[in-house]
């Protein structure tokens, strides 16, 4: 039963990696077809490519590690006896990739300023 649960998680991770590759690649190709003069085109191409690559690599790494842990009893990923190994695994598979994605997407779009907007007065 434990092997099946690890293989299920590995399958989910593989499908997530495949989804990031498929939809990230489609978005990348769609942006690549935009006219070169488009404002921000190059930056968006870079952002989409980086985020799709980082996310798919991390999910693929998790898939490989879960498959390895499912068939090798010595390679248990939930090691409570070794908190340093647990920290290193989650650092490489979750924390660093999340920080990289947040860093890449750090710019928040500015708010639109409407020229003819007048707030309603109460009373």
TrEMBL record:
Protein name in the entry: THH1/TOM1/TOM3 domain-containing protein
Keyword Cell division tagged: no
Span of domain THH1/TOM1/TOM3: 2-120
InterPro entries xref list: THH1/TOM1/TOM3, THH1/TOM1/TOM3_dom
Main localization category: membrane
Record family assignment: Belongs to the plant tobamovirus multiplication TOM1 protein family.
GO CC terms: vacuolar membrane
């Amino acid at each position: 039963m434990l092997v099946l649960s690890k293989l299920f998680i590995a399958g989910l991770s593989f499908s997530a990696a495949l989804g990031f590759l498929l939809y990230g690649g489609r978005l990348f190709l769609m942006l690549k077809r935009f006219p070169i003069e488009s404002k921000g085109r190059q930056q968006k191409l870079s952002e989409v490519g980086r985020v799709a690559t980082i996310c798919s690599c991390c999910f693929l790494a998790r898939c490989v590690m879960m498959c390895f842990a499912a068939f090798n009893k010595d390679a248990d990923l939930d090691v409570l006896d070794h908190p340093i190994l647990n920290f290193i695994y989650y650092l490489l598979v979750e924390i660093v990739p999340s920080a990289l994605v947040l860093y890449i997407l750090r710019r928040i779009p500015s708010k639109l300023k409407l020229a003819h907007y007048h707030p309603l007065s109460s009373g």
